[in-house]
Amino acid sequence: MRMRRYAIAALTVVCAMLTAADAVAQIQRHPTGVNVNANGPTTVFITYGNLQGMIPVEGTWCGEVVSAAPDIGDRCDPATIFGNLPERYFLGRASGQDGFTDIMSIPQSVARRAYQAAEAGSSSAFFYVRRFIDPDGLRPDEFVSVTCRMTGGGARVPFSLIDVQIAFDTEEPVGSFESGEMPPPIKASITYNGTGRLKGRWEVVLPGEEPPTDEDLLTEATLPVELRGTQRRYTEIARFNEFLPPTGEFELQGPDPESLPTDLHGLYLILLRIEAGDDKEGESNLEAAGAGAGVVRSAAVAGFPMPPLRYYVGGGIEAEAAAFRLLEPREGATLPATGPLPFHWTRVDAAALYRIEFENGERDRVLEAFLEPGVTAYGAPDWLRDRLPTPNLRWRVSALDAAGDVIATTPWRGNVIENP
Amino acid sequence: MGRASTGRWLTSLFVLASSLSLTQDGRAQDEFAVSTNLPSDFVPREFALELTFNRPLESNERVAVLVGDIDLSDLFVATSDGTTYTPGLVPLPSGQNDLTVYLVSGDVWREVAREPLRVLTPLGFEQADWDPRLDVGLDARVDEGHDPDAAAPRRETYEDVEGRFDLTSTHVRGDLQITSRATVVGVNKREQALRFGTEQRDAPKIDLSSYTIDVRGAGLGLALGHVAFGSHRHLVNGMSSRGTTISFAPSSRVDLSFAAMNGNPIVGWDNFAGIDNGDNLMLGGSIGVEALERPGGLRFEVTLLDASKLPRAGFNQGVVNDAEESRGAGFHLAATTADRSFRFEGGFSRSRYDNPDDPLLSQGADLVPVEEETKNARYLDVNYALIQNAQVGTTKTATVSVGFRHHRVDPLYNTIGTYVRSDDLENRFEVRGAIADIGFGVDHTRSEDNLDEIPSILTSKTRRTSAEASLPLARIFDAPIERATWIPDVRYRYDRTKQFGDGIPEDGGFNASHIPDQISVNQTASADWRGARASFGYQLNHSSQDNRQEGRENADFNNLVNRFSVGVQPHDRVSLNGQVSFERREAEERDEVVNTDRIGMQLNWTVFRQTAVSLSWAITHTEDEDNLSERDDTTVDAQWSGMIPYLGTVGGQYFIRYGRTTADVIDRTFDLDDERENWNVDMGLNLSFFGQ
Description:
The structure holds two protein chains of two kinds. By secondary structure, chain A is mostly beta strands.
């Protein structure tokens, strides 16, 4: 009898120790809960720690969780599944001390399902449950959940990019320019959640250079901290650092078109390189996740690589055409209401002819003139002023070669005619 | 009177008669007159124009000749009694234009003759231009170095071939105009193919980058290739993709347009017309009616949309997206008064939206179905000019307008035709104007979400106020052009946003610390000096983010950016640009201050007529004031390029370039110390055909 009591006591202690060991071994995560956009996608940087050899498999969103026993943690209630993390958004990777960095990109259709459930009276909170398995199959699966709270996608939601489109100020997806020609302006139309500083660099991949990989094109905040210094760099043409208020849309102006190289023939790629910034909501505490020490900043996380913008430069021109510039009058200068209207530009030795074009404020051409190659100035007629419905005028000069083809064009320059 | 003198008299009479017929007001304003050799019927584009003067030009006089709006004066060659132009590089423009002759004395242009010029066209077209271009390039990485081994590139040395074929054309005949453009690019390495990102090993090495064919005439327009459609703010707005649009204007007051295009922008030979995939297709149509004779006076537009989209990103896009279907209708009403002092725009749309089954999302699981929803959106913009072009002093004017904008987008409203932020109610009040060249604007916006007032979802309210001013000081102070260079254009913008939660939602997993209460202020001031050969710019930006909610009181951030730029062109063949920036960010909760300093420089020097050197250098240093982290990045590129001589009509270019990047990252918090260096020498050769 005594032996039996000892045996039961010993078994109880062993069970208690095993349970305690399980509790210690359980995978942790940070953040444990996040505010998300109820009417659009959301991306969040999550760190899991204390994996002890467990490997992540699917990530699932659902309206309710139930006990995963005999496995560990809470798994999704199969009747309330909103979706699984699509493969194209899987950017997770091992990180830190026995940790795993996950980029949770919630598609809009998942938020829509959660919204409709809330509309029908359920709790608006839903869950992202990541399942971890033992590759040897000896230990039970572990389910780790993160709570998603439904908001409007503004302040208090992690600062993340959910749609980035980069384009020239034209309709064609790939730019095609002549050597020495000034490309049109570039802009990046960005849709985002949260708020914060968007900072980084515009870089260019020159002809002959090895293009970047998808890994190079991820925003820095999408990578685990130890990989952030390893992305390949290219020729830097401009730096940006802009504040994005919690209003969801922003148009990032590209680099000065004059800084875009068009001297070499071949294919160029313009890269939007976004650096990690400060955002309290996007912080991932490695200590809290059991993946090391320190807080990882992840402002401007994105569930996709930044799209490169391609342009091709061709045509046979002489090198000096690249230096073709307008001189006087300077950008924005006011021209007199009476008297001469002189316009000056630099010389291109290879030019067989120059063409100067004038447009009014509505971008309609009002005058064009062809000039001999030795001429680098044009005196516009006095009646040009009368042909402008508003005081605004813009002009540019093109150099033509012996076949009549444009070998270099200056950018447009805007001026204003003084009121008489 | 002899025979010779009789001839001179007849000649003089002819010149006089010609000048009488040519002078604008039908009378000889002075004794100068011009006659031309233009026949009454059509002439070829290469027709040599001859102008004969009735007297020699004075020393302060010259003759200017325009065909339409084209000034060809400089291309005319003086003859003993006039001037002549033999078209070469610039043929006479096809169709009918006025040939106008001016006598220029000093700065005064006086019209002395005007005559119709009718020019024939090749092949029955008034204009028929084909412009092919072919570029083929060989690029090679001839040497490379890296440290450590982890910094090794995917390919250490290589030779790549790439090419582009570009064809543009313009054909004009009467009212009919046909323009086209197509670009095909090719590479020898599949990893560099245009569509490698989406097609991987199936990406063709030679692929269609883009094409457009545009046919217009008799009020009808047809466009194929890369097209755009839509002008309804909440239904379909400037959607741009591959497909077809047809526009038709049966009268000057009615216009119709139809579009069929791919669901997102694409490149490549596949789906050439853009309408091959019914699951990724947008169909749209619109009709616009001008109710008044005056265009824009009162315009009414109806737009219809039926679209479906697969979860694919557009060619230049990165996005978190879904499979979608939407169908909707919208109307738009716009009106302006004749003097444009009052403008009105309003619109309403109703869209039915659904997310069809997406196996990439379900991955075999039974998902909670998405309910198809039909929702509404509306907008209203009103603008009134309180003061319009009022005289200020002797030479300046003033214009001041007030405006009101409103929109309401239902929760779950969505459409494939444009991005719309749903569940949003916004009202904006604005005042804008320009007084004596000083531009200004002030606006205040109030918005809120959770319009269905679902108790478990957070309601956020936003209050945003912004103000801006533009001061072109040279214009304001009427500085003469030669001194204006030294006087900057100054701009300032202030933007304050307050966003806060309206209570704690029930049963949504929230506590007080999850509810936002934040004020952010963003200010930017800039000054720009621009001269003929030098420019200088300075920009100061400061932003602060003040979090006030429970548990976030100290989670505030401040950012300060000082940015300088300078551009100098000391010689026609040399240009130098430089940028210096200093960024400082403060995280108050962590008591952390991080500084980022950058210097960048670009030099372009055309050493000889056919040879150029360019140098680009940038160094960025980031360091926190507690010395916990530090990062240095350097990029350097030096390039020598030139044209290959003796190739005749084939253009050739070569280059050699040295590039070097270094990165040194130290982070003591994460125990990181990573130092990398890569350098490479690239060479290239490029041939251009047809472009000479």
